[in-house]
What we know:
Strand order of the largest sheet: 1-2-3-4-5-6-7
CATH superfamily of the largest domain: Ribonuclease Z/Hydroxyacylglutathione hydrolase-like
Order of helices and strands: EEEEHEHEHHHHHEEEEEHEEHEHHEE
Number of domains: 2
Distance between the termini: 54 Å
CATH class of the largest domain: Alpha Beta
Helix content: 25-40%
Low-confidence stretches: 315-319
Largest sheet: 7 strands, mixed
Strand content: 15-25%
Shape: globular
Amino acid sequence: MGQVRFGNVIVVPGHDGGRFPFCNSLLIDDGTRVIVDPGAGQEPLTRIREQAAIDVVFNTHFHFDHIIWNYLFDRSRVYLNDIEAGCYRDRGEIPLRLGMAEFYGEPWTGGWLERIARPDTPQSLYTPENRHEWWLSTARLGGTYRWGDVMDFGSTKMEIIGTPGHSAGFCCLYFPAEKVVYTGDIDITPFGPWYFGADGDIDLFIESARKIARLDADVYVTGHEAGIVGGEEFRRRLGMFLETIDRRDERILGALSEPRTYDDLCSMGLIYGRKFLVDDWLRAWDALAVKKHLQRLIARGAVTCRDGVFLLIHSPTDC
Length: 319
């Protein structure tokens, strides 16, 4: 798919179909020229930079695939939401929000900062955990924005819709005149919603997804894979996307057909699959996702924990 224009809002498709660690980006070609979430790929973004100056780099949140090529736009003002802006002032906040400090402890955080500071660090097998772009693209912060702000770039107005759940500061972008929404990581992919970081939240994710589905929009642009989707199609596929959460619940309940400890459950690869647990990020996120789902199932009265062992609740007396 090539670039597609809606007024002055141009969709820049990501490399490899916008699959992680790439994403679909936006170019706002107006009096103020803006690149939103520069994760489409180095080549298309370099071409954009060479065509005309980019005034603003706008990040919907701090995750790698949405900020990876911030550094290409070294003369632009980089904007991040005020909730997560600390990630660009102190990179040590990044592994805190991603859940790595929670899972591995503080020493891991220091080691990670040393690894991303070097361009020659050996890379992880499945994820961009140690990529040097982490260091390059979090080096500057030109300004912050808040949910509810309306940014005016000339003839284009962009409303910032607060949509926490994926991360604490995550937002979607609504262009009311064009009736276009950039959904970022509310992306209707087959994998399903991602809320696995320390600042992710299942219930908030669901609430945020339903919130953007109610916007007066004809076109939804996802950050990954699907790309440009009509409003009716997006709303239909959003239901299937959110159903993945229930299927993850069911997978954990199935694993609890016999009592298991948290470590037992974490060793099973219930979210990503066992073979991917060799990767530091995926091992931590698998475990943190299991933890969030266990809390959800306990709150619903489906699971209990006794002496560190999780069990299904089969009757009220088991509570």
